[in-house]
Amino acid sequence: MATRVALIGAGGHGLSHRRTLQRLSDAGTVEVAGLCDRQPVDPHPDAPLPGVPFYRDHRELLAGERPEIVIVCTPPHTHLAIALDVLAVGADLLLEKPPVMSSFEHDRLAEAVAESGRLCQVGFQALGSTALAELCAAAPAGPIGVSGAWWRPDSYYERAPWAGRRAVDGRPVLDGALVNPFAHALMQALVLADEGGPGFRPVRMELERYRTRPIETDDTTFLRLTGNDGRRVTVGVTLASAVFIAGEIRAGGAVLEYPTDRLRLSGQAEVQRVPGRTGLLENLIEHRRDPRTPLLAPLARTGLFTAVAEAIVRAPEPSVIGDGWLAPHPDGGGRVVTGIDEIVREVAETDRLPSETRVPWAAEVHRTVVEPRLRLGAAQPVRQRD
């Protein structure tokens, strides 16, 4: 029998979910109960979803259609309120990343999930990667390094009122290179660290945030987390690079290019693509049918990510990289940091932040403590109440 699924936040990134819904609808796995967005959403050739009811108000959708699962793909600072409404009508939840804005909100949502007896899966789809599972099973020793270099033109920060902002209407906004576009890299690195011992517990966070344009948040981020057992996770990512690095996670001679699932384990000569990703909606539906199938990204598994993201966005404002270190992007649309692709890779490979090397524009590092309330752990069966 098809599962009734609704989507709140059908525009923008919601198109990716509409494509999934169309595919699963065609296969007879789901019945699309309704779509919701504040603005009209035109049918897409890949996801026409003919005859599906459309709503401007998510509460009207929930009351009128009574879906069994609801996908929430709205701006992060709206997630908690909408998620609570979904749980209140007895539906299970697939909540886009980042799930919530703070550890306090994380605890509030976890309480609501437990009280309702429903399920909450978070949209870290890369956790369904077979390549990541193989890397974790190999348990590579040593520090973990993460690097990524992308390009986002200035128009990227004009796509939504919250983009590039620290707050909207007095509410904090969870945006920035590492907590949003590179969130999957951070989440996978934390999972890998947690798999490598008795639970990764950061006792110190060292952070350098930079911006190359007139935004409130960072477009270039460097982070080092040190665990209570001395293990380290060091990250260098940017959205201001003319040279593309898809995203790499390195540990003990192994390297995973996480967006493409290309993996080289220690001792292997070549990088190989490891096929296979389990979709989070499919995983949620299968778990509903058979609780012995573990959820891949239950809310509890994302607690450390939320704590780290909260510490990042609460840090001092990003430092400005001066004009002398910038150059126009070859395609226009803004400027890039000269040589930034080499810098992010060096940070990931050497475990040293820009302020500890000869990077001329580097600013003073910000040090703080991360206090996660929930353990990451492996994917675990999460049972519904009867």
UniProtKB/TrEMBL annotation:
InterPro entries: Gfo/Idh/MocA-like_OxRdtase_N, Gfo/Idh/MocA_oxidrdct_glycsds, NAD(P)-bd_dom_sf. Pfam families: GFO_IDH_MocA. SUPFAM superfamilies: NAD(P)-binding Rossmann-fold domains (SSF51735). Residues 4-124 form the Gfo/Idh/MocA-like oxidoreductase N-terminal domain. Gene3D superfamilies: Dihydrodipicolinate Reductase, domain 2, NAD(P)-binding Rossmann-like Domain. Keywords: Oxidoreductase. The keyword Oxidoreductase applies. It comes from the Bacteria. This is Gfo/Idh/MocA family oxidoreductase. It comes from Actinoplanes hulinensis.
